[in-house]
Structure formats: C-alpha cells, structure tokens
Amino acid sequence: MKRFFAALAALLGLSHGLSAAETCLDAGGSQNLVQTAVRALKGTGSDIQRNQTGVDVSIDVNGRLCSLCGMPLPERTDRSRRYVQRSDCGNQSLFEHPENKKKPLVQFTRAANGNQPETSAWCELNSQKVCADTLYNKDVLYQAKSIDIRLEPVAQKYDPLYCEQNGWLTDDYRALQHDFEGMKVKADEFCSSRRQVWENMTMDDMSKVYGKGLERGTPTPEEGQLVGSWTCAMGSALCDIGYCVYTYCRKADGSFGTYDDCEGWDPVKGMPQGI
Questions:
Q1: pTM across the whole model
Q2: What is the pLDDT of residues 151-165, one digit of tens each?
Q3: Of 270, 248, 2, 230, nearest to 139 (Cα)?
Q4: Of the candidates 117, 76, 105, which has an alpha carbon nearest to the alpha carbon of residue 267?
Q5: Residue pair 34/57 in contact by the 8 Å Cβ criterion
Q6: Edge-to-edge order in the sheet of strand 56-59
C-alpha cells in the first residue's frame, strides 16, 4: 500500500512523505520537479531509484515518472506465467498535473471502449500504477509480489493495521487470492458498501488523512478505513486486498507476521488459510 506522496518524497530525499510532497505539488513548479526527477533517475543508470525507505519511482515506457510501477519479483512467480505492463497510462500523471489531486478520483475511471481497455486513476495518474497492471493481468497477487515490504519499515508498521481495519486479513478474502474473478466480486462488494465515503473523494482528501497516520506511525480505525475506501475511488480495492492477504498474518502471540514469519507462507502460493 505504498502511496504516491511517499514515493515522491522519497525521490526528493525527504523524510516526511506526505507534507513534503504536498508542498512540492502546491509550489506550482511541476515541470521543474519532473525534469529534476527524470535527470536524477537517469543519472543512476537504472530505471528505478530506491532510497532507504524502499519506495520506487521509475520512468515508464513513455518517459513519464511513475510511482510503484514494478513487476512481480522472479522468485515469487510461476515461471510459466507471462505478465504484461500497460503502456497507455500516465496521461493525467500527478507528477505533471498536480492540479488533479483536487479532482474527484472517479473522474479518471472509464469503461472499456472499442480498442481501448478500461482505465482508472491507478492508470491515468501513474500513481501505484502496479494496480492497473494487476487488473490488466488478472492476477490478485501481482501487486503484492512486486514489492518487498521488509525494505519499508514505516509501511511494515502502518500497513498490517490498515489491512486489518478494513477486514482484509480474514480467510474469506484469503481463500480468493488465486481467484481473480471471485476476488473482483468481493472487492466490488466492499466498495459498494462504502460508496458514500469515496464517490467524491480526491487525492487531497486521502492524503490529509493518510499523512496523519503516517506521521504517527499507525492509523486509527477511522483513518485506515478511509484509506481503504480511497482504493475504491482510485478504481478498485482488489490490489490492496491482494497485498494484504499475501503479506501479513496474525501470529499466535497476537503480533503481526510478515511473509515467512507466518507458518506455511509460500512466495508463489501466498498465505495459507487458518492463520
């Protein structure tokens, strides 16, 4: 559940993702920001820059900045499975159009039309674009397998509670981690139950709430649930649900476990039920 504002702040070497990123976006210098960031990324000799927070910002196939745009790690995939990354995203990128953070996120959702696939804020804003690819590849665990949350101590503290506060660590969700259509129905039901919360939500609305929990280290139930609703405004809750069921468990001592801290976890198959 690594977020756009944290990714942008990481790119700039700033310690507090939300407030710093908002300051940059509000400064009106989006073109300078993009040019500086692109130069920094290209200067590394790699498409991806990772600082101590573990947050990824990359340059996509169209030369645009893109946050959280990776593919599943090789050791977590079935070798017979082939993935495709969308190349039509980023048309309304927040890196280039910071004004979009004040628009209702549902404005960026469009149903498939002719030769054009469906799209959403995940794709159009190039923000956590890995979710757009998750949906395109119809793999619930695509996003979850693309990151190693152990490299992100802040997220590793915040995210398990966020997952639990939205009810996403239960067996009824875990049972669907290899059933894309079943999980899509389940995610749609979740979003339908919260429509009044997210139907007019903007990125600004989410970031103000998310930032409070991030600064504190953990979200309150109200904060976690609002951020969960935000995924619906972005286009689908499926990706974060998949991330939660793959990554975290409650251990016997009541603490949260991550990956192989949890008995029976498998990098390809994910988290077993009943833990």
A1: 0.84
A2: 989 999 999 999 999
A3: 270
A4: 76
A5: no
A6: 48-50, 56-59, 65-67
The span from the CA of 144 to the CA of 247, in Å, is 7
**SS3 at position 37:** helix
Are 237 and 243 spatial neighbours (Cβ–Cβ below 8 Å)?
no
Say if residue 5 is exposed, middle or buried (CB neighbours under 10 Å; 0-12, 13-18, 19+): buried
104: which 2 tokens? Answer: 């209702």
Residues near 179 by Cβ (< 8 Å), separated by ≥ 6?
Answer: 140
**Which pLDDT belongs to residue 26?**
40
Q: Quick one: pLDDT at residue 226?
A: 98
Instruction: Specify the pLDDT at position 240.
Output: 98
Q: Does residue 110 sit in helix, strand or coil?
A: strand
Q: List the end-to-end C-alpha distance of the chain, in Å, as a whole number.
A: 21
